[in-house]
Design a protein that fits this description.
Layout: H1 13-35, H2 39-53, H3 57-68, E1 74-83, E2 86-93, H4 99-102, H5 105-115, E3 124-125, H6 133-140, E4 145-153, E5 156-165, H7 173-249, H8 255-285, E6 292-294, H9 296-306, H10 308-314, E7 317-320, E8 326-328, H11 330-347, E9 355-358
Parallel strand pairs: 7-9
Antiparallel strand pairs: 1-2, 1-5, 3-4, 4-5, 6-8
Helix pairs in contact: 1-2, 1-7, 2-3, 2-7, 7-8, 9-11
């Protein structure tokens, strides 16, 4: 299709919204910085650089406050970030009390109300002594006007910023505009910090989920391994006695009984194959880390003990001659000997006593 012809729009609106949402703060940042000339523009550019390079934007607020406060009438700053149900005070600049003192329970409700002031609300003027404990503290520090700015990253609230002035006349329009640009810069940094915290929390959740899945998988594999070992013996007996019935009763069975017996033999073989496949799968999943020297005589004795009922039923004799140590997996050798002995016993003639010799011969 020609690029100049109209075509159907197949773009994902959610993806476009996310992309635009990521670039809008950056575009707005350059636009706001370009609106200021001289000292304000330089300070805003320095603030943007500090917030971009510092790992924790809350730790950058002290440096930004010391840089900006002498050049504006905002002598006290309060910064809030969402933590749980209530906004938490994360920075207090220009006050005699430190951050820990302001985070006492007696100030909690008052700080929450101050942080929750709606954006665009008119500045507060301290014409009379306020009853609010935080406002009383600010009034005692000489504050006469304060204004609140909401910090938003996209459609998400990431905090609020309060500027307080000692001047009764409040802030000039230029300062108000600069404060808004400064709040936007801090909002971008707060939003980025919250996103990194959420990603780190998601990574921990994924790691915990992956660990739990690995544990559950290991338990299921162990259950399959135990079940396959426990099922193998009764399934083997079912198959053996079905073959014995077929050998002894075949000449005397009618067509319907012979068909039932064939169904029994076929089903027994299928179950035996399924159990063998399950055992082989669990054996691969639980393979030994590396081969080691194995005593074949001990392994063969253990195999004969497992097959003792089949050996007694057939009257077979099994002779073990001295065998050299083998460098291989013990389970692999046991499975080999078990299949070998079982195959010999099943293929032997009913009127002949089986004799099985297990020995080794040297080669050049």
């Amino acid at each position: 299709m020609s690029p100049f012809l109209p075509r159907r729009r197949t773009h994902d609106r959610g993806g476009w919204a996310l992309l635009v949402g990521c670039f809008l703060p950056v575009i707005r940042r350059f636009h706001l910085i370009s609106d200021f000339n001289g000292n304000y523009g330089e300070m805003l550019a320095d603030v943007a650089a500090d917030l971009l390079h510092d790992s924790d934007p809350r730790l950058s607020l002290g440096k930004i406050f010391r840089r900006v406060s002498p050049h504006t009438s905002s002598r006290i700053w309060l910064a809030f970030a969402p933590r749980g149900e209530r906004p938490q005070l994360v920075f207090a600049g220009g006050l005699s009390l430190n951050l820990a003192d302001l985070q006492q329970p007696s100030y909690s409700a008052s700080l929450s109300e101050l942080a929750a002031r709606p954006p665009g609300a008119s500045p507060l003027s301290f014409e009379e002594a306020p009853a609010d404990p935080v406002l009383q503290l600010l009034a005692q520090a000489g504050v006469r006007t304060l204004v609140n700015y909401t910090l938003s990253s996209g459609a998400r609230l990431v905090g609020s910023l309060v500027f307080a002035s000692h001047a009764t006349s409040g802030f000039t329009p230029g300062e108000m505009k600069f404060h808004q640009a400064l709040a936007d810069e801090i909002a971008i940094a707060f939003g980025r910090d919250l996103l990194q915290e959420e990603l780190a929390r998601k990574d921990l959740q994924l790691l915990a989920t992956a660990t739990e899945l690995q544990r559950a998988q290991a338990e299921l594999e162990q259950i399959a391994l135990v079940a396959s070992h426990d099922l193998r013996e009764p399934v083997r007996h079912l198959s053996i006695y079905a073959e014995l019935l077929d050998r002894s009763l075949q000449p005397n069975l009618d067509r319907e009984a012979a068909q039932y017996l064939r169904f029994l033999l076929t089903s027994a073989k299928r179950v035996e194959l399924l159990v063998a496949d399950l055992l082989a799968y669990t054996g691969i999943r639980h393979d030994e880390p590396s081969p080691r020297p194995v005593d074949p005589e001990i392994v063969a004795a253990r195999v004969c003990w497992r097959l003792r009922e089949l050996i007694q039923q057939s009257g077979a004799q099994i002779r073990l001659k001295p065998l050299p140590a083998l460098y291989m997996g013990e389970d692999d050798l046991a499975l080999f000997l078990e299949n070998l002995i079982e195959s010999c016993l099943r293929r032997s003639s009913p009127d002949v006593t089986p004799l099985i010799c297990i020995y080794s011969e040297g080669t050049s």
